[in-house]
Amino acid sequence: MADSIRAERVQLFPNPATEGNFTISGIEGIKQIAIYDLLGKKVTEFKDMNQSEINIQMNALKGIYLVTLSDGTQTIHRKITVN
């Protein structure tokens, strides 16, 4: 139950992201964040985090990306659109 509550707290904003810049908040306990394009290619990855919020600045083409967040046992998925 606690995992689903934490998953609901994860926020990506702004969405759509302007020029690949956005913030992910509510990531307490998250150990790894990876961002993939729709072809499954990893665009960027962050590991060993110990924070509640991270600012992402990725050089990416316009489109939709999949953000995966993992605490080591559970993985949460979100989508971000880059304008």
Structural features:
Immunoglobulin-like, 83 residues, four-stranded antiparallel β-sheet, mainly beta
Short description:
This protein has one domain: Immunoglobulin-like (Sandwich).
Describe the structure.
Helices cover 10% and strands 55% of the residues. The chain is mostly beta strands and 83 residues long. A 4-stranded antiparallel β-sheet has the order 4-3-6-7, with no helix packed on it. A 3-stranded antiparallel β-sheet has the order 1-2-5, with no helix packed on it. The N and C termini lie far apart (35 Å). The mean pLDDT is 91.
Tally of helical segments: 1
What share of residues is helical?
under 10%
- Order of strands, main sheet, comes to 4-3-6-7
CATH level-3 fold name: Immunoglobulin-like
Q: Helix- and strand-based class?
A: mainly beta
* Assigned CATH architecture: Sandwich
Strand content: over 45%
Q: Kindly, what is the distance between the CA atoms of the first and last residues, rounded to a whole number of angstroms?
A: 35 Å
How many beta-strand runs?
7
Low-confidence spans: none
C-alpha-based Rg, rounded: 12 Å
SSE inventory with pairings:
Layout (H helix, E strand, L loop, with lengths): L1 H8 L1 E8 L2 E5 L6 E6 L4 E6 L5 E5 L5 E8 L4 E8 L1
Antiparallel strand pairs: 1-2, 2-5, 3-4, 3-6, 6-7
